[in-house]
Amino acid sequence: MKLKDKVALVTGAGSGIGKAIATLFAKEGAKVVVADIDPEKGQETADMIKQSGWDARYVQSDVSREADCEKMIQFTQAKFGKLDILCNNAGIAMVICPVENVSEELWDHIMAVNLKSVFLTCKIAIPIMKEQGGGIVINVSSVSGIRPRSGLCAYSASKSAVTTLTKALAIEAATHNIRINSISPVATDTPMLEDMMTDEMKENVEVTKQFVLATIPIGKFAQPEDIAKAALFLASEDASMVTGIDLPVDGGRSI
Ligand SMILES: NC(=O)c1ccc[n+]([C@@H]2O[C@H](COP(=O)([O-])OP(=O)(O)OC[C@H]3O[C@@H](n4cnc5c(N)ncnc54)[C@H](O)[C@@H]3O)[C@@H](O)[C@H]2O)c1
Question: How much distance in Å is there from the Cα of 33 to the middle of ligand 1?
């Protein structure tokens, strides 16, 4: 087991990639806090992990709010006594549209959930990790932040900034034995894929998917478990010399 006796907090773990990360971390011996804005989905993930004989707790949290970030980190410390691994996975998409159709509210909301959340959680968690003598942060960014697609300006900009914030914090925290890395998934088989589609695209989901697929050199969508395995590597001792990187899990899309 690669994460025996570790304590991990995974945001957005009620669905998709976060759910796969929380499950794999628990399987590998970590005690996991599942944080999600959606109580039903978050509790379901925690219950599923517990039914497998592993350890998990759910806490409701909107990662765009500082008070909620404090709450979920305090919850983790109260339940499990420490915080070894913080995985900032929660994120939202936008429906594909030209920049002139992006409202100020939508821009702000995407930045708050995808980017400000990483700043807030790191601001709270890093001092705790410093005091503990070390820790690990994994931020789920996106290949959209490296090689943007048309019509996703706010989403791509938020993810690009997550990758840069990761590097900025990694250099700041390195001397405290804190490793901070990001992962950039390509289109992954989760509910988010359809969240990006226009009504017209939704009428032809399979055609749209084939169009996206044609842009992924390896010829397939990522599965949530592919991203979870990359997160496990970064969370484990196997990556003890790895900090400040962005790891694309993208089937060659960013080449
Ligand atoms: N699916 C993809 O194609 C893809 C590709 C690249 C990157 N990503 C990134 O991976 C991460 C996970 O995406 P996913 O595909 O699993 O999406 P998903 O929609 O399946 O899951 C996202 C989860 O985050 C939760 N969430 C949303 N807003 C929240 C908030 N404010 N506070 C707390 N939780 C919140 C949702 O309730 C949901 O359970 C996101 O950061 C996303 O940008 C996804």
Answer: 16
